[in-house]
Design goal:
The complex is a heterodimer. Chain A is mainly α. Chain A has 19 helices and two strands. In chain A, helix 16 links the parallel strand 1 and strand 2. In chain A, helix 6 packs antiparallel against helix 18 and helix 7 packs parallel to helix 9. The chains are: A mainly alpha, B mainly alpha.
């Protein structure tokens, strides 16, 4: 009875918080929380797409000499599996958390540029379709997610396949860059009074580092992609060996982007488990400062290791040694994080909800991937392993065992904040163990098939090379992962409707996002909190955990914002209007600008098809539509 | 009443600075975002410039930037780059940065003593900056056309490919800057820019100076060093 009453109360309050629903409200929203939810759903959809691609790949490789898919389709599948998982799943899942959590964690009412935020999402969503839909016409990119030129150039990859890849990645780059400028500004400039950098939650810290990686790494691939685009569309010579072009130019530029990209994928997950572990260990994060500094160190060193992807090209002993050294060096700050997480759990009173299981899973699985990473940081060892399944095993341990496990931990942890309801723990536990066993069954045998010489990217193989058993194991494991994924989807949608009501703070967590109702009202904080320590909610509710954590003196507090009040729990739900809080107007203009960009880029494909007048019409029309919408956006008031 | 209506008119063009939101650093959001953007642009131009430098001297056929070249058919191509002409366009672009500084000063100092006459005319200096940018673009258009007439296109060799791409990207940045300046000039003519609008001129100025600095690097590395 009481429960029913609570549920009804919740339901009515939930509908109050997002007054409008329906397609138009989603197209025009500039609320960081709604945009975060859009990112979440879109990325989960692509997780299904990328997962099904993986299932097809593994089905084809289950036994020797199968022909489930053709060699041509296989090329498209492995290219799109990589491209999808990197650019359409892990990055946007991280972006979902950036959007939803950063303003809540720093005590802000939105991001610095709400409309730019909507723009980032729409460019991503439309760009994702641009690069994904061609697979239905057999035109999906087929030159690998790394798109090595000259292979991806006009000579060896004619047709439209790699056109979609080159242009699609340019589009997605615009989205990531726009979002990164936004989050950097948000974190630097919108922290609540008292929220110094060294009091920021660790997820916000890691996100902060990631945004710098994005703004510094993405322009490099933008340049490399422009070169490839010019080679393909305008007949330039950047990657043309006959004209003297260097076949390694692409590899260098790509990996100068590509290695920081690896940290762009993993650091948000590191941030998420750094929230989950202290909460469920009921103990502050061990070595907070070192955790923040090691994140910065990883970001910094991440720019100095790119050529370890290229040991096999023959750069010579000096370059090989330098990059081997920097690669081994970057293991240090990463190892520091692993030990700090373990030390966080040590002596804590541990609880093991699903999020905690995934967080501990990340520590274990990432460590395995980290160790094999240290193995091929040594060039002689790498020469044996490069382009074999050993490498596939390595990066799936860090990206599935690391990034995805961390993201699952984050989803189970933050689902109650986002929806107001808890996810089902029993199904969650099943999902965790299926994932854990499935991923080890899929990827551990790849170490062996790789060591036995099985190359990457081959679409089939002969029997009798000792690879058969390992491949069958990998395939069985992949189907387990598929089942785990479906269980997750079931849990997600079921809990959204029928989960137990969560309240403000179901986990007894220490940071600001848990001081407000779940789901948060559109203005987030009715009153901006004044922060005096790293774990403001534990100050309020569990001060015994705060021994040894620095505080600012109450008398030294200078409340700089007239609306700031000491940290408190907000339970009342009132509308922004009642509270007199200005809320940005919904607007469709960011969507229109994104649409203009897509039309312009599609014009290039039409150009390649030889339809010159139509191509010009699309490029000029799309460009004009984009610029016009941009001016309309910039000249209309925000709130 | 007057204040409110003035604010309403002003918000027609630019919004957020009307409210003076609390910010952690006290700086306007746009100032931080433009610096992040410029940091990002540095990496873009670093990639373009390094590619040009890596490909320097590696073209299989001419014409070349600094040396004459005789084709197998016996045709003689003179060195492509015309340093005196480009020095002139470089001078114009450098001067535009000075005009930009004066434009920002005029906006910030509007109504203050010492900003009477031409020094206080933000319209004049914005126009001067934009015109200098257009002049630079004119020089570039002339340069590109004459190179094509002399036999160097973006497809001819590695030099043509990397040269036109690098300078073309810079030229595009100048063109975007000119469009931005013209927009500011339009707002200035419509409602007048004053000290309260300094931020919107300031971020344009930062972009403009950045584009200028990039040109100094390009002029030195591409034109002056042989």
């Amino acid at each position: 009875m009481a429960l029913t009453a609570a549920t009804t109360a919740h339901a009515s309050s939930a509908s109050q918080s997002s007054e409008q629903t329906g397609l138009w409200s989603w197209l025009t929203t500039v609320d960081h929380k709604k945009i975060g939810i859009l990112y979440l759903y879109t990325a989960l959809f692509y997780l299904l797409v990328g997962g099904l691609e993986a299932v097809l790949i593994r089905t084809q490789l289950a036994k020797p000499n199968l022909s489930v898919v053709s060699a041509e389709l296989y090329n498209q599948l492995f290219t799109m599996h990589g491209t999808t998982m990197v650019f359409l799943v892990v990055m946007p899942l991280s972006a979902a958390f950036f959007n939803y959590l950063i303003p809540l964690q720093i005590g802000a009412r939105d991001v610095a540029f709400p409309r730019l935020n909507a723009f980032s999402y729409w460019v991503f969503a439309l760009g994702g379709l641009f690069i994904t839909l061609p697979i239905f016409f057999g035109m999906a990119p087929n030159g690998g997610w790394f798109g090595y030129a000259p292979l991806s150039g006009p000579t060896y990859s004619g047709g439209f396949n790699m056109d979609f890849w080159v242009l699609g990645l340019q589009i997605l780059g615009i989205s990531s860059l726009a979002a990164a400028f936004n989050f950097i500004t948000t974190i630097i400039n919108m922290r609540a009074p008292g929220m110094t950098l060294m009091r920021m939650p660790m997820f916000t810290w890691m996100s902060f580092v990631v945004q710098f990686l994005v703004i510094l790494a993405f322009p490099v691939i933008t340049a490399a992609l422009f070169f490839l685009q010019f080679d393909r569309f305008f007949g330039t010579n950047f990657y043309e060996a006959q004209a003297g072009g260097d076949p390694l130019l692409w590899q260098h530029l790509f990996w100068v982007f590509g290695h920081p990209e690896v940290y762009i994928l993993i650091l948000p997950a590191f941030g998420l488990v750094s929230e989950v572990l202290p909460t469920h260990s009921r103990k502050p994060l061990f070595g907070y400062n070192v955790m923040a500094y090691s994140g910065i160190m990883i970001g910094f060193l991440g720019f100095g290791v790119w050529a370890h992807h290229m040991f096999a090209v023959g750069m010579g002993p000096v370059a090989d040694s330098i990059f081997a050294l920097t690669t081994m060096l970057i293991g240090l700050p990463t190892g520091v994080k692993i030990f700090n997480w373990i030390a966080t759990m040590y002596g804590g009173s541990l609880r093991f909800p699903t999020s905690m299981k995934f967080a501990i899973g990340l520590i274990a699985m990432f460590t395995i991937g980290g160790i094999s990473g240290v193995m091929h940081s040594s060039p002689p060892s790498d020469l044996q392993q490069t382009d074999t399944y050993f490498i596939v095993a390595h990066f799936h341990y860090v990206l599935y065992g690391g990034a995805m496990m961390g993201i699952f931990a984050g989803i189970y942890h933050y689902f109650p904040k986002i929806t107001g309801r808890l996810m089902n723990e029993k199904i969650g536990t099943w999902q965790f163990w299926l994932n854990f066993i499935g991923l080890n069954l899929t990827f551990f045998p790849m170490h062996f098939s790789g060591m036995l010489g099985m190359p990457r990217r081959i679409y089939t193989y002969d029997a009798g090379q000792g690879w058969d058993l390992f491949n069958m194991m990998s395939t069985v494991g992949t189907y387990m992962l598929l089942v785990a994924g479906l269980l997750f989807a079931y849990n997600f949608f079921r809990s959204k409707k029928h989960g137990a009501v969560a309240g403000n703070d179901p986990w007894g967590a220490p940071t600001l996002e848990w001081s407000i109702p779940s789901p948060p009202p559109e203005y987030n904080f009715a009153q901006i909190p004044e922060v005096t320590s790293r774990y403001p909610l534990w100050d309020l509710k569990a001060p015994e955990k705060m021994a040894g954590i620095e505080h600012s003196h109450a008398d030294a507090m200078t409340i700089t914002d007239a609306h700031a009040v000491p940290v408190h729990e907000e339970t009342e739900r009132r509308t922004a209007k009642e509270l007199g809080i200005p809320i940005p107007f919904p607007t469709v203009k960011p969507f229109m600008v994104a649409l203009g960009i897509i039309i312009t880029f599609s014009g290039l494909i039409v150009l390649h098809a030889g339809k010159f007048p139509l191509a010009m019409a699309m490029m000029i029309g799309g460009g004009a539509f984009m610029v016009g919408s941009l001016y309309a956006w910039l000249t209309s008031p925000l709130e | 009443m007057t204040v409110a209506s003035a604010a309403a008119t002003a918000s027609g063009a630019h919004e957020a600075h009307e409210h003076h939101h609390y910010t952690t650093t006290g700086l306007d959001h746009r100032k931080i975002a433009i610096w992040a953007f410029i940091g990002s642009e540095c990496m873009l131009f670093a990639s373009l410039i390094s590619t040009y430098l890596v490909y320097k001297g590696r073209s299989v056929v001419g014409p070349f930037p600094h040396e004459a070249w005789t084709s197998p058919a016996g045709q003689v191509f003179k060195p492509i780059l015309d340093i005196p002409v480009t020095s002139a366009s470089t001078f114009v672009l450098l001067m535009s940065s000075l005009f930009m500084v004066l434009a920002l000063a005029a906006v910030e100092g509007k109504g203050k003593p010492g900003y009477e006459g031409v020094l206080g005319s933000s319209k004049f200096w914005l126009l001067a900056t934009a015109l200098a940018g257009v002049t630079f673009l004119g020089f570039q258009a002339y340069e590109f056309t004459s190179f094509v007439h002399e036999g160097l296109t973006i497809r001819t060799n590695l030099f043509g490919t990397s040269f036109f791409t690098l300078t073309g990207f810079h030229g595009t940045h100048v063109a975007v800057g000119v469009l931005w300046l013209m927009t500011l000039l339009f707002i200035d003519m419509k409602r007048g820019l004053g000290p309260r609008d300094a931020i919107i001129v300031d971020i344009c100025a930062l972009y403009w100076h950045f584009v200028d600095v990039v040109w100094i690097a390009i002029f030195t590395l591409v034109y002056l060093i042989k």
